[in-house]
Amino acid sequence: MVMKLYMPKIKMTKINYTQLGILIKIGIFLLYGYLVNTYYRPYIYSHKINDFGLADIGNNITFIPGTYFLLRLFNQKYIYSQKGDIIFYFIALSSLEILSAFIPHIGTFDIKDIFGLFVGALILNYIIKDESSTSVLK
Predict the structure, then answer these.
(1) For residue range 103-134, what is the model confidence (pLDDT) as tens digits?
(2) Which of 128, 96, 88 is nearest to 113 (CA)?
(3) pTM score over 0.85
(4) 77-91 pLDDT, tens per residue?
(5) DSSP letters for 113-126
(6) Quick one: 28 exposed, middle or buried, by C-beta within 10 A (0-12, 13-18, 19+)?
(7) Are the C-beta atoms of 76 and 17 separated by less than 8 Å?
(8) Contacts of 2 (CB under 8 A, 6+ apart)
């Protein structure tokens, strides 16, 4: 009598490179925000270096790309379109910044923050445009 060993079948799953790429981009933007907030900003303030407001807007640069990639991780469909979503996020976050000038306790209004959001939108637009021109899966 021969005994047969039971070997479970291992189900191989495909790696979703789109989601992996999005996770890497989220990690890069989180790391940038962490470094700016934890090291760069305190260093600039403690040494009284004039960096033309970069220490103040550093995190705002990451908000729009971070929001875009985080939402793309869970939902691959656009709300409007690629550029429409960027504009939507810019308007929504800028509106919140403007509201902070009139409603206490939700933040402090600073025009440099809106400029940082705009720079973040431009960076995201460049990243998306570069991805679509070099994408293998067109």
Answers:
(1) 878 778 888 889 999 999 999 999 888 666 65
(2) 96
(3) no
(4) 778 888 888 999 999
(5) HHHHHHHHHHHHHH
(6) middle
(7) no
(8) none
